[in-house]
Amino acid sequence: MTELSPLQKARLKFKPVLPATLAAGITNLSLIEGNATESVADQEQIQKLFPNTYGKPMVTFEGTASTTTFETKNVGVILSGGQAPGGHNVVAGIYDALKQANPENKLYGFLGGPAGIIDGKYIELTDEIIDAYRNTGGFDIIGSGRTKLETEEQFQSSWENCKKLNITGIVIIGGDDSNTNAAMLAEWFKSKNAGIQVIGCPKTIDGDLKNSQIEISFGFDTATKTYSELVGNIQRDVNSAKKYWHFIKLMGRSATHVGLEVALQTQPNITLISEEVEQKSMSLSQIVDYMADIIVKRSKLGKNFGVALIPEGLIEFVPEMKAMIQNLNDLMPTLEEDPNFTQLTSGVEKEAVIEKRLKAENAAVFRSLPAMIKAQLLMDRDPHGNVQVSKIETEKLLIEMLKIKLYQMKQEGVYTGKFSDQSHFFGYEGRCAFPSNFDSNYCYALGYNAFALIQFGLTGYLSSVRDLTKAPQDWIAGGVPLTMMMNMERRHGQMKPVIQKALVKLDGPVFKKLEANREKWALEDHYVFPGAIQYFGPSEVADITTQTLKLEHEASLSLV
Amino acid sequence: MTELSPLQKARLKFKPVLPATLAAGITNLSLIEGNATESVADQEQIQKLFPNTYGKPMVTFEGTASTTTFETKNVGVILSGGQAPGGHNVVAGIYDALKQANPENKLYGFLGGPAGIIDGKYIELTDEIIDAYRNTGGFDIIGSGRTKLETEEQFQSSWENCKKLNITGIVIIGGDDSNTNAAMLAEWFKSKNAGIQVIGCPKTIDGDLKNSQIEISFGFDTATKTYSELVGNIQRDVNSAKKYWHFIKLMGRSATHVGLEVALQTQPNITLISEEVEQKSMSLSQIVDYMADIIVKRSKLGKNFGVALIPEGLIEFVPEMKAMIQNLNDLMPTLEEDPNFTQLTSGVEKEAVIEKRLKAENAAVFRSLPAMIKAQLLMDRDPHGNVQVSKIETEKLLIEMLKIKLYQMKQEGVYTGKFSDQSHFFGYEGRCAFPSNFDSNYCYALGYNAFALIQFGLTGYLSSVRDLTKAPQDWIAGGVPLTMMMNMERRHGQMKPVIQKALVKLDGPVFKKLEANREKWALEDHYVFPGAIQYFGPSEVADITTQTLKLEHEASLSLV
What we know:
four-stranded parallel beta sheet; 16% strand; homodimer; 23 helices; alpha/beta; nine-stranded mixed beta sheet
């Protein structure tokens, strides 16, 4: 018997609030079709690749007095990629809608991510299972995985496995890549007249699956609240002890939405935004100069302490680092077949050879790195021999470079402060938190709505719940054709149809708010302490959502 | 204008519940004296060192119908050492009691820890200041510091500064060392007939200031809940992704109460307890063998994932490491004056010299360490040339040693699993969290009670609030003579009177619970997910306290 924490027991009883239209019940919905849609770019190519699913209309649901009865329908659900708080509620939403539509309907959970549908590994979800996972974090109900569902063979075996279970609807809960694959699978099934519909659900704590149709992916709200709790607690510590600079790296490699949201919630002294670094073509030493400048200015105010937020993906956005790493990836396979190199026993000697063989500008960048980071670049390489950028401790790299910079400034007499550092990396801490009330409601609605889309015969759609700054009752439920969000991008040397990843817009309202405040936050102390996520208590505490959503909503209103 | 988070606004309004006796009001208390007390050990020496404050009775408060009026009284308060959630409520409790007793009374906050009273740096606390800090984390209301208040000169200047402000009562909020110093200061003032009373308050997240009179120090409840939230979230992630072993180091150098409490709240696969390692004289390689055994067994069950908790102070409890570090501390000053050593440019050459100069058994231990740790031992040394044990990344040391061990086991064919690691260190994340309802109430009562002790003329006492497993209304408020908790211990080569530090008792009920369950938790998965601290909602969620307190309370009942 599993032991449950008091909070888990209490959360199992929480009843998510559905949008009023969906709350009418799965048998009392009508589908409103909008105009035909187009992809965001490359319309001709996307249409050619998705002849059966392209150009479909946006749809929304409305409640209706007349009751529809439906044939039985079995559905399979897949959790894909990294965990995000609320995944279990998506599954619960699908389950409740499906059983409401017809108690004979069955929901199968494919195990361990997309591999489950390919290999035919599944469980049938029951009341007992679903009830044990309502409003809890994690993807452990059926597990997740990173297998990409994209080849003809995989589609074929998925079809076989669906046929065995009489599954005619699949819900794929995932990020931009998984939803791209959902679109391809939907098209493929349609081209084969397989009679299997595919619906996607927008998941990722990174917040980069977002566009004019998707206000936010699920999990972002809970994850950023969890990181903000920790950053706020550390700021309170910093402001009490007044002796450390804390460097906090936050998860999110391809975009800095997480870092930006956490910055707005906590107001630290320094926030680095990868997208800005790239746009300004900043070098590592320019980043270090920017940080050192704030450290020195604060020191002159008697404040040898502070907090800096660093995005996980930073160095991939620094042009000179990107070029150097690419050069290194090209160079290393050759070197590793060269006995003159492999016979060298000391790291220093190997590094000397590498420096000689890199292009001059890349060698200069390599030379400028602290010893610890050079070693990480050479040691932690993936099976293809590539540098594992995610393993590079960017926060420590910056600290090491700052120490050198501050030492120089001390020699020059422009800095007389004390610099003591602490570093942190927050990522896993937030991916499986109990979903906030917002994510609990949002995910349940996404799941319920996903089944409604299936029930109404749609395929190649993303489950869409909008107007999220309003109360859940007033949210709008419907569907967006997946192809509408696609364009062509180069991936591994080939042009492929993909859902556009949303980077932080430097002319957007969220970054603008940071930009307008960061000088003030750098020198004065405007720390905000959000504290732990609350699931109970005053609504203004327990039900607020992110500043990102709020600011983007306000901006969209002013555009109308 | 400072921006407040929604939770902070809500928490400012929270009204702590006082024990019923204190709730009668500061003017309606009577003091009940118990029997005279003795120190826990070394009675003769302690009595000799504390002639004026030794042997005083335990005291408790009762409510009374008759109203007492008091002369005006000014008090100074000091926050000493590392932050612990609830410190602001102690200050608020003192303030409210003091103003209730007489609105003319003044509360001064000495700034930046004990240095504030020595240097005469202070602020007068007002309604406006206090109201901005009620039920918040951190020590930022007046700051904290680590200056030790122990010399004659320091006492003398403290006296001068108190005289200037007409302060006749001091409350020192701190850990075992700070309370030892409070006892010395109380004795010193008494010996000078200074007319200044000193009261201590038991603070530390480490939970090692605890004895038959103190059930728990404040902050332990909130800090362990914060760490348990994070460990639980990571466990849910581990159990969803099923691909990583997470090694989590938890703050607490001198005792493992934090690690033990977090283990009971979350039930991870591996929990190391420093006190057990010391008692069993375990070597580092024995610890690694113990961990590797569990990793291999889980791998055979198809589980290449897990969570291990590691106490921050671990290596100081490993006898061979302790001896080696001592040897290194003795050796390095000599080496650093030897040009033959200092002229060496490579770390490898230096390490070779060190190995030769260490005693044979210590050299063997040094040799067995991963390169990264050897470098940390030699680089991060304090101003006295000593190894900074707190900077050694024990979690990474164990991971490196495990990788080697598992590689060997793979070569021997006894292990065929995959080992991917993640490491974390949680400490600063929990020291300044918003205090839990328990810590909010407990701290407010400790502060209120501290002023009551002053008002009744006591000095050299610790503010004591007991029966903490009951509802706050039923808590017993009173005082314990500080000397009662003291014994003689060797510190820096000299015997000194100190308050005994409480280590984890291996025959105590808390460790026994871990011991009874850890084999099961190691191989089966019994993860518990506590989630974020809740301040609102069902009482069984928002008001529960630690398992440590509960189990020790139950054990104390069975002893009666």
